[in-house]
Specification:
The complex is a heterodimer of chains A (109) and B (114). With 109 residues, chain A is mainly beta. Helices cover 0% and strands 56% of the residues of chain A. In chain B, strands 2, 4, 5, 6, 9, 10 and 11 form a 7-stranded mixed β-sheet that branches. The chains are: A mainly beta (109), B mainly beta (114). The interface between A and B is medium-sized, with 20 and 20 residues.
Amino acid sequence: QKEVEQNSGPLSVPEGAIASLNCTYSDRGSQSFFWYRQYSGKSPELIMFIYSNGDKEDGRFTAQLNKASQYVSLLIRDSQPSDSATYLCASEYGNKLVFGAGTILRVKS
Amino acid sequence: KAGVTQTPRYLIKTRGQQVTLSCSPISGHRSVSWYQQTPGQGLQFLFEYFSETQRNKGNFPGRFSGRQFSNSRSEMNVSTLELGDSALYLCASSLGRSGANVLTFGAGSRLTVL
């Protein structure tokens, strides 16, 4: 069973802090990884994706991939109350995305 | 550019009935994936279609079926509804030949089974 594991949270951080969200995956053959954000009552929206080992930055967001450790993370700098949402990690398995259960992030002002 | 459109947005059915959900992908997107989202199970993959062919299917019973038309629009059907089928059904489309390319989700169809 291919799995993507995330801590369900909630993860609470103060406004302006760095939020660190983590994800592990079970299939070493997986090549691409995605982070989606889902606000309550809304559908998931893509934040960013990463294919290569190392870091990928996009504005306040940085995705980190370590294939040896089968570990993906998302850092959110200068967290804002509007970042409060559920963050879904997904891994590609044979032409489909498998999602983790999501981590609830709460940014307190 | 229009996004992924799902209809209906909300529906209520009773056990034993069947339901058909529709999804229109972003123009030019040929891959359509369906997911079921529940509080307990999260996002579960149902199936993926490309050029009218089902390329992938998740671990759901045969009561769940789907199809894709030549214009890339897709439908999914659930027959003999059970209480546990109450969920948000999400459709997502992608540009690439693989369902694992970047997915853009529709707003979802929320199904309640009484």
